[in-house]
Amino acid sequence: MYEQLSHSILNEILERLKPEIKEQELNHFYTRLGANFYSLFSLFLKLYGKRKDFKEQLLKLVEVMARQYIGRSPELKKTDLAREKDYNWFLSQKWVGMTLYADGFAENLLDLLSKIDYFQELGVNLIHIMPILECPKNASDGGYAVSNYRQIDARVGDLEALKNIAQAMKQRDILLVLDIVVNHTSNQHEWAEKARQGEHKYKEYYYIFQDREIPDMFEKTLPDVFPQTAPGNFTWDETMQKWVMTVFNNYQWDLNYQNPAVFIEMLDILLFWANQGVDILRLDAVAFLWKKIGGSSQNEPEAHILLQLFKDCCQVTAPGVLFIAEAIVAPVEIVKYFGEDAINAKECEIAYNATFMALLWDAVATKNAKLLKQGIKNLPDKLERATWLNYIRCHDDIGLGFTDEDIMEAGYEPKSHRNFLLNYFSGKYENTAARGLLFGQNPKNNDARISGTLTSLIGLETALEEKNQEKIELSIKHIILLHSMIFAFGGIPLIYYGDEIGTLNDYSYMGNLSKANDNRWAHRPKIDWKKAQLRKTPGTIEHTIFSALQRMIKVRKEIAAFGDFNNRELINLSNPHLFAFLRIAQENQDHVLVLGNFDASYQYLNLTDIDSKMLRLNDRDNIIDLYSSQASVMFKNQLVFSPFRFYWISVS
Ligand code: GLC
């Protein structure tokens, strides 16, 4: 878009660029900057327009983009051009992800290189390596308290090792995802150290207060993220004799984005990693980016402006690189992190579908799909050029992130229903085999979240202890059912490492002082590769789950209707235990009807229920399930579901 004022400022800035920048070949950079500048300028103006040094800061911003563009390799620039052309490339059903710790799944980055064959064996082609940047050893929050953004933690490897992985993955068409912790740094980061020593420039990088006046105002309304281990949102720093804002752990200092220098530093860091060959940057804790007295300091409009700015800038330098929003917030808020408009106010192309995840866990506990249907019915539409990361488990705790209104619509009383879920998963409810752990219990409001691996939460740990073969088999079916949902829903399915071989809770964290008070470590296991080897032995749990996922991935990749083009329609069935949706294909291809039984007993679906949706099932006597390639089980015009059975049925 052309607008006079911003354009004249752009001309001024280009004029002032240093000769060593100007003399480079910057064709594509200039065209993209021209296209994005009006937006970029307006957003920067909204946040920082009142500052005297506004133009100087804008010049610095452009310089950072230009320098990083110059440093971008010809190979990556080629990928950028290809992805600009095929701009919906990431919506294809061909992508299937896995999240892992380099030192949990493997020994380190070097060893991870040797696991690429395993990814291909399973079929995953998007690998999210959990944070690997330098962190203080005993105060790292699992990698989310970074002390150096340009250095890889020596415990997992070095830049060279990462570059080798990025290269090897690229050769096999596997995408690399890395975390950038944009909201806060470790209190041992150089910026924090300098602030502590009194350097004005770096004091401005954080929220630092002389006394409790402002912190008290903030704390009136700020929730506690870690109420047990880090209550409150400010930490007293002995050296400075001042209070620092620390919304997460007391060693994680919140960055002050009211200062444009912080934004520019972080952009430089994002582009630095983009230039190391990272395809997708996972932006951590984005809901928290802007702080305001008198609210929760989450989902503030300015946080969205910051993300739009990051996106605009990244598109100028490295347009092939995508963002994942890690915003684990209310359903109506999450979708806003895609942006309001894919062209004018775009933010992150991908976001965690925390709503679907939490709803799936509700269906696990209740054995019905009532709240699941209700929650999905109310899941707001997303932009066209945007996609979900659908997951069952990740490295974090499970929050019951659905709304009280939906709980009521589903026929429950919110408080008691939430209590039931916490009791169910923590094993307190009498009728449960789940082995979860309560995390972040808050005595002020009785709130809590849940830790534990998929396998242990489903009940397989208990079933194995009881040596109860029937329960073991049911648990495995249950695990597979959940995967069948995230693989078919629309978006990129994200497997959590270890789930593909049924990894149980790991209680060894309790013996480690720096982990003992954070039970999320129960579900951050070290993979036992001897056990993983059993995936090749039929009859083992590892083999059953691994081969089911392997098959599911293979079939998913062949079904065009599984591409994510906002082509899902929820189907309302009268049987509360069944969850159903239709994935609509583009012209000349079959749609896919996805059905799952969340109950532990047999369920039936009368096909007239489906007929009323005007679907013509191909051949009523021979309905083929795409996953198993076998005829579905029919009994007198009813589709039969064994406990936790799912179907992917082709319909035209
Ligand atoms: C994100 C991470 C979580 C971490 C938090 C603070 O939510 O996923 O693990 O504790 O940010 O960095």
UniProtKB/TrEMBL annotation:
Superkingdom of origin: Bacteria
Gene Ontology molecular-function annotations: amylosucrase activity
Database matches in InterPro entries: Amylosucrase, GH, GH13_cat_dom, Glyco_hydro_b, O16G_dom_2
Domain Glycosyl hydrolase family 13 catalytic: 99-556
Residue spans crossing the bilayer: none
GO biological process: carbohydrate metabolic process
Protein name: Alpha-amylase family protein
